[in-house]
Amino acid sequence: MKKLKTTFAVILALSASAPLFALKADSNTPTQMAQMTDVINFRVSVDKDVTHNYWRAVVFTQAKDATLGTANEEVNKTLQKALEILKKEDVKVETSNIYTQTITDKNQKTTWIVNGSLKLRASSDVALSKALTALKNLMAVEDVQSGISKKKLEALDDEMIKNALAKFEEKAAFITKTSHAKGYKIISLNITSPMSDDFARPYRLMAYANRGSETPVVGNQITAIRASIDAQIQLIK
Length: 237
Known about the structure:
This protein is of the alpha+beta class.
């Protein structure tokens, strides 16, 4: 899984007994910070297994002919049949695409290749599998993916950060106690949370390129998400 990064740099001051959100900026300059003693660096993290909540597939068809119009007509008919079938299925057709290629031999004879594809999305693996089964004699499966939607991830983000901060407080208190210090100051907290534009890409389940291939078994997938904190504190003796 690609690590998710949303980073906050915070310059804070805190005693061991002070509440987490009663924070104020530390006025230390970079030179003063470099001269500080009893500075501790550590990392804490929390993980959570999250079940995917969307499934996506791309199905395609292809036609070859010496005449572009004939190849186009065949692909269009296939797409129209597929769209009619999908009206009865619990899936959303996100995109419908047609593109062409040409092959020219030494005798300058041209063969037109027309490709048509549909991108499908479903909110359950069962619904997507059922739709692919309905299409298996008409179109081939090119790609199947599943993932966690941004909306679901946003709902988990605050929870993960809160749990990571609680773990930070527990670790900082432990270090303070075992070091026989009176308290500690937070120099910096760098928080990495699940929310980021580069959040883990959808998990690719399989890719089939043969018409009439067996319907892929999609199944539920789980991704582990993480929130972590790189902390730097100074012990107060």
